[in-house]
Write a structure and sequence with these properties.
Elements lengths: L1 H17 L6 E8 L2 E11 L3 H13 L7 E3 L2 E8 L7 E10 L3 E10 L2 E2 L8 H93 L1 H76 L2
Antiparallel strand pairs: 1-2, 2-6, 3-4, 4-5, 5-6, 6-7
Helix pairs in contact: 1-3, 3-4
């Protein structure tokens, strides 16, 4: 009676332990290669089937020289030594089932008297804990892999954010440079207008000199006409220079408008990327908290 009480207490304590996180081991009866037999089932959230199978094959080998082999979708190892469960040799059968939630692992332990079950063997709590410890370790590995993947993705987001910031800096620098160029051109245009006014006045005065020189002699007139042509040439050159300055400003102002629109778009991209980074950091924190909670 006392023995049954101890077994019941162990089962209660074990079930309580299992309920503390995502890993829950359940006693089941399933049809397997040895018929309808009692065993254990546990779901490993978001786990990879191949990784689980490889880890399980290693875990059940224990201290024995036996190796697990897969036949008809069932992993089998015979006469293995698992002191965590019993000092006797065990035959262990297992199979994995991929689901949308992760991987379901079904396990059956057989000793010399038959398959371990809650009704007739003292090894049941130890066997249940063996499955739980394995599942917990695999879940920790899964979460650790998720943390690493999430951290890599965060690095990628941060790299993209830094690249966007550099592009924004380049755009702002270009706007500043073009704005300074427009200001310089505007000042140059003002100077050019002043020079044109001066030369036009000189041309008007020179035309009068041509008229006055014509009264003196053909040679004097010819000399003043030459000076007039020089002034007219200078005016034409100033007008061409102004036209070039105006064209530069049109082009620069158009570039500034386009760049300012790009800057707005880039600022939105950066803001969205920062939101992605914040959300990713939140995911990493959740995964790290989950990892800490797995005991």
């Amino acid at each position: 009676m006392k023995t049954l009480y101890i077994v019941a207490l162990l089962l209660l304590n074990t079930s309580f332990l299992f309920s503390q996180n995502a890993i829950k081991v359940a006693g089941v009866t399933r049809s397997m290669s040895q018929g309808e037999q009692p065993g254990f089932a546990v779901t490993l959230p978001k786990a990879d089937v191949k990784l689980v199978e490889t880890a399980w094959a290693s875990a059940v080998q224990g201290k024995s020289k036996s190796k697990a082999a897969k036949a008809n979708n069932e992993w089998v190892i015979t006469k293995t030594l698992l002191p965590q469960i019993t000092q006797d040799t065990l035959d262990v059968y297992a199979r994995t089932i991929a689901t949308t939630e992760g991987v379901v692992l079904e396990v059956f332990f057989k000793d010399a008297t038959g398959f371990i079950n809650a009704e007739r063997t003292m090894a049941y709590p130890q066997a249940e804990k063996f499955v739980y410890d394995f599942a917990l370790k695999q879940h920790k590995t899964t979460v650790q892999n998720q943390v690493r993947a999430a951290e890599e993705l965060l690095k990628s987001f941060e790299k993209e954010s830094a690249s966007l910031s550099k592009e924004l800096e380049k755009l702002n620098s270009g706007v500043t440079k073009n704005t300074m160029g427009v200001n310089d051109n505007t000042n140059a245009i003002a100077t050019n207008d002043s020079d044109q006014n001066r030369v036009r006045q000189q041309i008007q005065a020179q035309k009068q000199k041509v008229l006055d020189a014509a009264k003196l002699s053909p040679e004097a007139k010819k000399a003043e006409e030459k000076n007039l042509k020089t002034l007219e040439k200078e005016l034409k050159s100033l007008m061409k220079a102004k036209e070039k300055l105006l064209q530069k400003n049109v082009k620069s102002n158009s570039g500034i408008r386009d760049a300012n629109q790009e800057i707005k778009n880039k600022e939105v991209e950066i803001e969205n990327k920062q939101k992605q980074i914040a959300a990713q950091k939140g995911k990493i924190k959740e995964l790290q908290d989950e990892l800490t909670s797995l005991k």
